[in-house]
């Protein structure tokens, strides 16, 4: 990841912290934006340098305590108490930014909440899904217990989530009892502290160019010694940082980051292939679009929630191009604020592991656009008798223009499909459904609703396909737009049977007990 | 000629509230002995039987047996026009197709007449045999209402099982399970707060909570409720109406199959 690109994350972090009041820890950052954890820490340091005065910072101090020199300790300390806590350590301890937040939460658990939710989501993904927790690719800790899969392909080899958890929770506990992790950890810290030096310099050069310069009254005293020392070697380090970044990107497997390549890898491709197969049969001008949209009202983990799989299918037939800008509808107000105040550049946000990521993009307005497209297609949409057909028409497969990841527009190539008369096409419309998911978040989804019964079938099929073909999305709201529907249907069905009341087979009849007079 | 004068008018209001959720139309039968009603709900799963004995009325005159079909919602509407302290008098002439409700305020300075059309209702009267019940539970009616309400938020059916330990209400739903056990408790200050269990043999039956909740609409009529259970028989949920009679609900049990929840 280029420095410039990384810098673009800063406004996003600012938006998260100041608008959504989220605790942004380096772990969360690392997983969410697919950065190495070390890089995430540096990024946070940079952020603190820039905006430190406007928010609260929690630092991680690690080193050997004066009063118990045999144990390696890691402590969290707020910016105010940093100096004080530092006194407890022997000589020079490592000081890193653990998290930034709008205010120090009363309950320490809040510090951990966002990343826990995130980790939970990652772990809840099917085993086949590659994600950065399973393959441990961004972990800064290395020892014999932690297996890191640099190449995304080998993720299937079930890494050791337990160990990983151990490692991540490690830094959370205020006082870490000694375990075998200690040595490697220390090494890691040392490495990090060297790299940390990069930040100030890169920051200073970049902050000039930065669009929304923040008041630069960051507090140097907060910075640890090594940071200052390292500034001198900024140039060298910078280079190092860059190369490290690119390497980290490649280690994450480019295919994972950009939707396009990975025909072999990507779980989502099979779905596309089937799409393609169908249209091939009949090739008139029918657009086939599959869209998945996520809308997640909650602030804390919504970046995951906002994931959207999109895929562009370049098919020979008719390449109708449409500009498609997505924006999360239910976050409208929010997003606008974000755009205005913090001006994050949504498309620049890197993807989280192998799913393709459309951030904060689906807006009501654009939903309309989508609907329009949809209408086009539905007019000519033909019920081929193939349920797959219907299932694939369910959404729009989009693909981010990977050549130009920063561009705000997305091009949808409308896939032409076998066409028939409009008369046979089922009525469908777009419906916004709001439900509360298992975590209590309100999830608003835009789903296609069809009057026909076959909706259910296709829906089901679709869901099944989704589960099988695109594991990373299973937990995501967009994917569940379908599954939710079918779930709802199932639920309704089961309720009906359960609640049948008088018609219930199991319910006895009073007339079988009392005879008419 | 029919003329019934009930000093405690609110009682009639409560009776209607207790029935109208279960039954929409019903015949009120008047005889020399009293004023009664028997009706099944539309799905023929539950039956309600009301008896208000003639002794409970201040004035009771019924020249010959009379069956008056009424829409209970309409009766309820009429009775809502009566104050809680009003004296209610029901009047009907022989051969008339109307009934008159007369409401007198306690100090007699306001008298209101409401005439309501009667309707013809085909109803089958069921013979309810006297039966020995395996278990009879008497408990505070509010307690029972609370249990039914709570359980219905979790499941659709309730398993009522009586053992020598007590009576257990349990349910199971999508979100989980619930068990409420009430033990025999006679050491209370007020007799109406006692829970008394008379058991010949253990019994366990499953019922639809929907109906149970309808039954508990009679809670204002009585501070205690009596639940009589026998395997192979409908449960009887009885609310006594002081000095006058009772309102009894009969509910056919659900036939349990293997996977149905049975208390362990």
Automatic annotation (TrEMBL), chain A:
It comes from Dioscorea zingiberensis. Gene3D superfamilies: DNA polymerase delta, p66 (Cdc27) subunit, wHTH domain. It is found in: Nucleus. PANTHER family: DNA POLYMERASE DELTA SUBUNIT 3. Residues 202-214, 244-254 have a biased composition (Polar residues). Pfam families: CDC27 (PF09507). InterPro entries: POLD3, POLD3_sf. The keyword Cell cycle does not apply. This is DNA polymerase delta subunit 3. Keywords: DNA replication, Nucleus. GO terms for biological process: DNA strand elongation involved in DNA replication; DNA synthesis involved in UV-damage excision repair; nucleotide-excision repair, DNA gap filling. One of its GO terms (cellular component) is delta DNA polymerase complex. Residues 189-255, 261-280, 293-322, 375-395, 447-517 are annotated as: Disordered.
TrEMBL record, chain B:
GO terms for cellular component: PCNA complex. Coiled coil: none annotated. Residues 127-254 form the Proliferating cell nuclear antigen PCNA C-terminal domain. Pfam families: PCNA_C, PCNA_N. The keyword Nucleus applies. Residues 1-125 form the Proliferating cell nuclear antigen PCNA N-terminal domain. GO terms for biological process: leading strand elongation; mismatch repair; regulation of DNA replication; translesion synthesis. One of its GO terms (molecular function) is DNA polymerase processivity factor activity. Keywords: DNA replication, DNA-binding, Nucleus. The keyword Hydrolase does not apply. It is found in: Nucleus. HAMAP family: DNApol_clamp_arch. This protein is an auxiliary protein of DNA polymerase delta and is involved in the control of eukaryotic DNA replication by increasing the polymerase's processivity during elongation of the leading strand. PANTHER family: PROLIFERATING CELL NUCLEAR ANTIGEN. Belongs to the PCNA family. This is DNA sliding clamp PCNA. It comes from Dioscorea zingiberensis. The lineage of its organism: Eukaryota, Viridiplantae, Streptophyta, Embryophyta, Tracheophyta.
